[in-house]
Specification:
CATH topology of the largest domain: TIM Barrel
Structural class: alpha/beta
CATH architecture of the largest domain: Alpha-Beta Barrel
CATH superfamily of the largest domain: Homocysteine-binding-like domain
Shape: elongated
Radius of gyration: 26 Å
CATH class of the largest domain: Alpha Beta
Number of domains: 3
Strand order of the largest sheet: 1-8-7-6-5-4-3-2
Number of strands: 19
Distance between the termini: 74 Å
Helix content: 40-55%
Largest sheet: 8 strands, parallel
Length: 568
Amino acid sequence: MGKTLREAAKDRILILDGAMGTMIQQYKLEEEDFRGYRYRKTPGMMKGNNDMLNITRPDVITDIHRKYLRAGADIISTNTFSSQRISQADYHLEESAREMALLGVQLARKAADEFSTEEKPRFVAASVGPTNKTCSMSPDVSNPATRDITYAQLYDAYLEQIAAFEEGGADAILIETVFDTLNAKAAIDATMEVERRSGRQMPIMLSITVSDLAGRTLSGQTLDAVLASVSSYPLFSVGLNCSFGADQMKPFLEELARRAPYYISAYPNAGLPNSLGQYDQTAETMAPLIKDFVDEGLVNIIGGCCGTTDEFIAKYVPIVENAKPHVPQPKPQTMWLSGLELLDVTPDVRFVNVGERCNVAGSRKFLRLIKEKSYDEAVSIARKQVADGALVIDVNMDDGLLDARQEMVTFLNIIASEPDIAKVPVMIDSSKWDVITAGLQCVQGKCIVNSISLKEGEEVFLSHARDVMRYGAAVVVMCFDEQGQATTYERRIEIASRAYKLLTEKVGMNPLDIIFDPNVLAIATGMEEHDNYAVDFIRAVDWIKTNLPGAHVSGGVSNLSFSFRGNN
């Protein structure tokens, strides 16, 4: 039994293979090669659907894997970038998608096992592409709320694909060319579900593609914001692939290496494509650039993307010989939230103010605008809050006359296309859990769920907390349990303590992602039993900060206005 991928990565820099498409082009395949006998009558053009070659020309794919293994690759990636129903629908091959995924892993597994030795074990990373659709952006400029695909549809397609990878014996799941973090979250979510069902852990490798020299993804996030979005997940590595050549990738790689608490991977293109779509860099010109990554301690895994071949990979072998692998950063000690940009809640951020005007329960004007479907004006309320300094935007659609779930999805989709609003994290606020989960499936950043409590008992509480973890969010925990709302100091700290223990020990939540709300409650009502509410709140805050390490505290100061009700 050789080393696992995790063990191998501790000792040395690992080499990933190069491009699959570039290698396939060398075989000069024709339409008939792609179709084979089996798909001879399938309508449309098949040439270019590389994944179907797992079924129709397995000899070619196996040959490519062997070339990379001979060149010295430690990890080979499967020919399964588009082996899911969404991408294969373009070719009328949805029903073959699972088979492509399974055969893709089996071909790579067989080749890797042929070349594996005790000294140099070879690993299979199952390739998961982003599909040709995006969950975070509208395909229609005139209707920002519309989407080509939903999170649930993408999750189902990935679940089928990744279950086939597990069955085929993949060592790791490589979620690559990530241009929309919401798509990536769906793939991570599906991987974790497959792990739960099979009982087998597969390291999750995430590889992002940057779309411009400002260092943002196509869906607008900075790399720091992406790291925050996925910070709740147990990732093995993060890195960069595609988009740029090695020289232009380097500053973004440095940024990741400075902040990410994971292994770092890099597999750039062979330069930028020229006017004919060809890649000009050769193995000789690219190797010194890769050597810089290695010498500066930026990487744990290196390989090649578009335009690279086995010739490139062979040049990396002497570069990594006896080279020191990158040491991942320690896990963050502060809460990371994000919209398109990172909100790092360091001690310097003395106060995180949440804009609550996009709340139908708290703003009559916002309620009227949503009822009238005057979304442009409703969006301007969100924009003004951010301009006025709100660090987080709360969105609540709970009203008897609204379809809260639909309105939550519509509004979150619209503001995702407004960079001056979408840059800040969102607080998804509802008393209905299906509204919260629908909202979570719309947001690529790391948001806050408002809220969960022990009101319906431990089982519901734990189930809700697991959903929060599943979608990579932080959460507000109300001091409320089966006996009701905590109104005294003693009840507040009793509930907070119990909830903290359940979240950290049973669910495995990072304490930094827990925000307790110990109920400010109304003051100055003139009723004697209310006299201590505010003082008890302040004492409870102090106790939580002292006794529940990492946890944060929020207070809804709008509650103070309840004592002036009727005085509009």
